[in-house]
Design brief:
Elements lengths: L4 H6 L4 E6 L3 H11 L3 E5 L7 H13 L4 E4 L6 H6 L4 E4 L5 H11 L23 H11 L1 E6 L2 H5 L1 H5 L6 E4 L1 H7 L9 H16 L3 E5 L3 H10 L3 E6 H17 L3
Parallel strand pairs: 1-2, 1-8, 2-3, 3-4, 4-5, 5-6, 6-7, 7-8
Helix pairs in contact: 2-3
């Protein structure tokens, strides 16, 4: 369990991840066999049980790729990090205070005050000395936040100035809703907002985590310096492919 998003970025090439929702470990295994670089596990909108979440993190470890888990609040960071997730994503961060809370819950002192234990899976159930793990954790584990509102955009400099942040993601759907155009993620205003987050994130030396909904967008993101790209949501991808398959047979194509 020595992989990290820092190492993934260090390769200097775009890394492609799958959003893991409700489709489970078998689909994750297929994706990793296909060559995905990381798993972006959703535990905010998806209904993953604790046992399912453990399996997904284990699956990433089995393929030596990093996993990032989106939780519903910063207080949930301890469990997913103790079990071995490589990053935790806190949604809907709108202020510097909320960003600081994300760091507090996911980093050890002096950056934060993540709860300490000596026998969790992240420490190989106690085989890795706590002093060794503690010395490596703040460097290896990533704290990620998600920008999802106009209010967050207005406070972006304040948010990104918080020490201990590593990854900054956008939430296009919620952001479009906040901008008064629900579900319209392709507007000029939305593109400008995303580009603003990317530019300011990179200026701070942090990693943008952006959804690339097409090859064209992926190429554009790569040109902008975005190395972490989510390229599909498991259930949406499978649903679309199944619909296309059935449609092609019904039409005799």
């Amino acid at each position: 369990m020595n992989h990290s998003f820092h190492d993934l970025i260090a390769n200097g090439k775009p890394a492609f991840g799958m959003y893991v929702g409700d489709c489970g470990a078998a689909v994750c295994e297929m994706a990793l066999l296909a060559g995905f670089d990381f798993l972006r596990i959703d535990n905010e909108h998806a209904m993953n049980s604790p046992s399912e979440l453990r399996m997904l993190i284990r699956m990433a470890d089995a393929f030596a790729v990093p996993s990032i888990v989106r939780v519903t609040s910063a207080e949930e960071a301890t469990k997913v990090l103790d079990y071995g997730a490589d990053a935790v994503l806190i949604p809907d961060v709108e202020t510097g205070e909320q960003a600081a809370e994300a760091v507090k819950c996911s980093k050890y002192a002096p950056l934060g005050s993540r709860g300490m234990t000596s026998f969790a899976r992240c420490q190989n159930y106690g085989l890795t000395p706590l002093t060794q793990y503690h010395g490596e954790a703040n460097r290896r584990i990533c704290t990620a936040i998600q920008i999802e509102s106009v209010y967050a955009l207005d406070h972006l400099d304040e948010i990104l100035s918080v020490e201990g942040l590593d990854i900054v993601a956008t939430g296009p759907l919620d952001l479009s809703q906040s901008m008064g155009t629900p579900a319209q993620t392709g507007t000029k205003e939305m593109q400008e907002a995303e580009e603003l987050v990317i530019r300011k994130t990179l200026e701070r030396g942090l990693y943008p985590l952006i959804t690339a909904s097409s090859l064209q967008k992926s190429a554009r993101l790569s040109e902008q310096g975005v190395m972490l790209q989510t390229i599909c949501y498991d259930s949406a991808f499978i649903s679309a492919k199944l619909r296309d398959l059935v449609g092609s047979y019904r039409n005799g194509v």
